[in-house]
């Protein structure tokens, strides 16, 4: 089963998966009915828009997809590592994500394409920030890979192979909290509209502050980063 994942990885993964679930649902229910974190679907929508001559929709999709990539690039620039470990600048990245989500609210309300662009920037940054820990791939803004891994593990189990319990737990955690975030996001959007994004903005901000405090405590206790 390998190295056990520390508590901060589990808590951070759950929080960020729920954030992505909320943001993605708000995008679906919003004025463009466009996913924020689901680039596979947006790529298909872009292909359909180009095929039907919907240049307006195509421009919006291209902008949102480019923003996700730009956010991932920003995440790589800030974190500068492909492996989750204490000592990296996750607090800075989470703070920027929170600010982007806060900025997206008035832009969404104004019907501006910059609303989904800011939200996609935030999600791209988040996804680049959470990559791997001890060989366990951590992705928090989409669940296709997690469902694929569940299928692979099911196939392995049917062959009598050892079950990767850590990976199974991580998959179920991401799927469950992404789904729960989606339900919560839909309920909040029905009552508060785009102001529903204030919750994921707060969650990322709180997670960032919590991470900084946890890191400081670990360093104070002499735990190396």
TrEMBL record:
Protein's UniProt keywords contain Signal: no
Native organism taxonomy: Bacteria, Pseudomonadati, Pseudomonadota, Gammaproteobacteria, Lysobacterales
InterPro entries for the chain: DUF1275
A Pfam family recorded for this sequence: DUF1275
Alphabetically ordered keywords of this record: Membrane, Transmembrane, Transmembrane helix
Segments traversing the membrane: 7-31, 60-79, 91-108, 168-189, 195-214
Name the UniProt record assigns to this protein: DUF1275 domain-containing protein
Organism: Pseudoluteimonas lycopersici
